[in-house]
Amino acid sequence: MSSQQPAASLGLAEKIRSAQVRLSLIGLGSVGLPLAMAFAEAGLTVAGLDLDRRRVAAILNGEPYITGIEAAVLRRQVEEGRLRVSADPSILAESEAVIICVPTPHTRTQPPNILSICHAARLTAQHLGSQALVVLESLALPGTTEDLLQPLLEVQGLVCGRDFELAYSPESLDASKKLHRLRTAPKIVSGVTANARELAAALYRHVAAEVVPSASPRVAEMGNLLENSFYRGDIALANEMATGLIVETQKLLAASKRPPARQRARASMPAWLDKGEPLDSAVLHRQVTLAREVVLIGSM
User: Would you say 279 and 286 are in contact if contact means Cβ atoms under 8 Å apart?
Assistant: First the structure.
């Protein structure tokens, strides 16, 4: 006979700790699908929403479309009911924890497109259960969680810290090695409130080797931007050395025996990432400010 308490009698914190929380993920791309599978493998029941019906069909058929995903594991999780996926937003109904992993595409000159975050926030607000936790994991500019996502979730009268909790945890830099990074790399978590931070930390402890609390979402967002800048700078340096000298790339990397060169250098990356050019911080600030004005106008 099981010693587990019925989920209905537990508070959210205990549901998270005991893996009985109703968890949903929005966005099943290179970040969302590996994360959903990691939670399912840890014993949680996960609902995944992706508006791309081709992705949904592929998952249901046990056909991974992301490098590093094992088809047998994916098929088993779906068959056991640990991982449910749909293109219908109603799958989010009565979610107690929602992680937003939607893509925010960007280029060297254009900041991340946050329209997908706005859409995910509206879907979340429509289906959010009482006292639920919302976590943003998409690539976010400093201020996105509190200045953009929070007002969108509060449009229908909900109040952050009273009706729901809001947290931010930056996604992995190397999405192709997401599962490996979850098991080995520290996971940064932050919250608008201290309770949100604790709930998010408890949730990610199911899948992360180490959870590192951050002072606030803005600090975590800025830290993620800084980490990305170092990451791109390392790539740019390695590529310039490989192309500027008459040396075979693999031999150059093999000669770099000490970190960080050995750990971070990459032989082949997308062209826009190779150059490691930072985005204009003024452009980033203007986009978040504009998005906040749109949110305020929409709530009038």
Answer: no
